[in-house]
Amino acid sequence: MTIINIRNVSVALAFTSHESNEDTPATPSTHDAAETGALASAPASTTNASLSEALLSPLPSSILDVVRLNPRPSPLNVPSDSIAVTAGLVAKTPSTGERAVDAVIEGQLLDRARKAGLDSDEVARLKQILDTSPDFKGDAKLLDQILPEDPNDPFMPNGDRALRTFMDLDQLRREHPDRITPDVVATLVTGVARSRASLGLEGVLGEDSADRAARALIEMRQSDYDAIKGALNQAGHGGDVYSDAETERDLILKAVAAREEAYAHPSLIDKVMPTNTETTDIVNFANTIRGQNRDELLFRTTVASQGDVLQQRYADSCTPTTLEMLKAEADPIYAWKLHNEDVGSLGLGGFIAQEQAQLLKQAGGMVVPFALLQQMQQLANSGNPIIAAAAKAMLDKLERQGAPLEGLANSFDSDTTGRDYHETKVSDDPASRTQAADYMAKLVSEGVDVPIAVEWTNRNWMNPLRSVDTGMSHALLVTDVRGHGDDTVFTISDPGTGSTYEVSRRDLIAGNTQFGDDGKGRLCAFDW
């Protein structure tokens, strides 16, 4: 009886041009050498929709029929009873056939991963994970779901990010299979892959929040874990055709991620309580959203998406508002709270305005409502020179004061996002802006939203090719990025206009960039 390591051979055929540094597969036994060599010599161009007849020939006839009838076989269309069991071959023939089908599936998944945007090193890493997977069929089924045939599928546009999330979770699930179960992995990965429909292409989860959610599940006590698992299991109950259990689970685990720091370092009170207070908050949130309309859930758990941007309530509160957005994008429970009032209004009577005022005072800023700002602007145009001068002085101080991003971000957002923020100044030259844009793109693609500072500019009337800073600045939040190289486009949420717009990498590097309806300016700092 000959047993062929066909899984490794088939993948080598399909990916020799992309994985030149890949480890050499285990050497087959002498008994298998001739047949393995024959397979390895088959030209890659003859592979089926990737596989050659030479590669298909060792398959049992029942498997062969399935493969030929399904040009793209997957765990979803290969029946479990399709392997014929012949007398005397019960122990070995089925496993050979299963490995052959696994090879077909794996090869095509890796090809789709490459088309989704993984580089050759990442494809090699994914192959290694699949080759040693504790549940290949389960993993293959999950990857088949997140890798649509059309890479531009608007409902599943984040295949590359979801694949990287899957790879990031692999070590954690192997080390902690009792906590990072297949169901948890599937929820985290699909939560990254699926878009938020009309609210944007990015997923409910990002690579960063998925990783923090997994770590929180590992770090929490058993009682907390049992409560969270109970909430996940109840997702979708009592809903209708418009509800979505998977979105509920995404939001529950996103809330877990936002509390990873608390689970890693529980307070003295939490240590003596049956469960953490954070767990109580999450379970209550899960009960609130259970069975609700998916569109409503998505709308109420973001304040930085198209048509739903949190607006600053005071003349100088762009930084506090940006940091409120940053926190809300990381924590759906906080976002839900903000939506208890109109996030896009200028009202001063609710929680949002009170929090912005508090953050402004904390940073040493001036709490000036827009109505008062308009009065000051009218006084600055007064015919009384003394009044006009005083008003202009106050306006000038207000416009140039601003609030520091780094300090406020660390005091207000760090525990929720899991990051210690550092402000990076960006010099006024294309090389510095190029470095900043590329690093920001890397962070945002991994699900890390980036607060930025922009200095407004005017054209130098003596030299139109140059611009001059006005001394005024504005804070914004970068929430998504698409494309590569010169085609890279950033999605920016603006608390000043309450809008979301796109800015290309090319324009960001050039300087004197148009930022929505606010005006032209240059990137002068970002926090990460």
Task: Provide structural commentary.
The chain is α+β, with helices and mostly antiparallel strands and 528 residues long. It folds into four domains: 1-147, no CATH class; 152-301, no CATH class; 310-407, no CATH class; 418-527, Cathepsin B, Chain A (Alpha-Beta Complex), CATH 3.90.70. The protein contains 25 helices and nine strands. The protein has helices spanning 6-15, 30-40, 53-56, 61-69, 93-116, 120-131, 136-146, 159-175, 182-193, 207-219, 222-234, 245-257, 260-264, 268-272, 277-289, 294-300, 318-330, 332-338, 351-362, 370-380, 385-401, 405-412, 414-417, 430-445, 505-510; strands at 304-305, 308-309, 423-425, 450-460, 463-482, 489-494, 499-504, 513-515, 519-527. The strands form two sheets. Strands 3, 4, 5, 6, 7, 8 and 9 form a seven-stranded antiparallel β-sheet that branches. It has a two-stranded antiparallel sheet with strand order 1-2. Helix 12 packs antiparallel against helix 15, helix 17 packs across helix 19 and helix 20 crosses helix 21. The longest helix has 24 residues, at 93-116. The model is unreliable at 1-52, 79-94 and 459-468 (pLDDT under 50).
